[in-house]
């Protein structure tokens, strides 16, 4: 019998990410995995020279670390605040005339974008904490159908997993750093 590897991917060096629990209820597990992915994004952006944060290094794609942070701040706001909690707040980095400004308009300061993203994550955590259950619902604006907090959290997990893969490719192009 062959030896089973401890891990199939190298761990990201540095940072202080809490490992998601191996046991726990659904809310604890979803919240921990979502926070793990949020912290992964922050780690992929840490210690990157300012000039490289907005660099579009995976052509022909227009993604950059700066754009990913802006995009995910908007995603947090859209799903947790606007769709689920029905808060009347403006969209971030989006307009009907310029729907891709999260990735295209990178003239702003990355530190400010990171702070906006962190604030949106904090507000999302507050919304989750205030919910009575993962079965609580908001209203999906495009269809008028109810969406559960469970669905929103799973959707965000998929969004972060996809974009953390993009962040990993960008970081590898910047300085060769890789890892999960």
TrEMBL record:
The lineage of its organism: Bacteria, Bacillati, Actinomycetota, Actinomycetes, Pseudonocardiales. This is DinB family protein. InterPro entries: DinB/YfiT-like, MST-like. It comes from the Bacteria. SUPFAM superfamilies: DinB/YfiT-like putative metalloenzymes (SSF109854). Residues 1-10 have a biased composition (Polar residues). Residues 1-24 are annotated as: Disordered. Transmembrane segments: none annotated.
């Amino acid at each position: 019998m062959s030896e089973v590897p401890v891990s199939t991917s190298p761990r990201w060096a540095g940072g202080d990410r809490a490992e998601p629990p191996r046991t726990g209820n659904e809310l604890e597990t979803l919240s921990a995995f979502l926070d793990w992915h949020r912290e992964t994004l922050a780690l992929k952006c840490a210690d990157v020279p300012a000039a490289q944060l907005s660099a579009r290094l995976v052509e022909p794609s227009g993604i950059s670390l700066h754009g990913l942070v802006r995009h995910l701040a908007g995603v947090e706001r859209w799903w947790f605040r606007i769709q689920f909690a029905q808060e009347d707040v403006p969209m971030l980095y989006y307009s009907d005339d310029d729907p891709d400004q999260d990735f295209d308009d990178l003239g702003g300061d990355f530190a400010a974008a990171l702070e906006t993203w962190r604030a949106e994550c904090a507000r999302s955590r507050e919304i989750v904490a205030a919910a009575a259950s993962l079965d609580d619902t908001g209203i999906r604006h495009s269809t008028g159908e109810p969406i559960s907090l469970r669905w929103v959290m799973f959707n965000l997990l998929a969004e972060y997993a996809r974009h953390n893969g993009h962040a990993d490719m960008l970081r590898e192009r910047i300085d060769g750093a890789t890892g999960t």
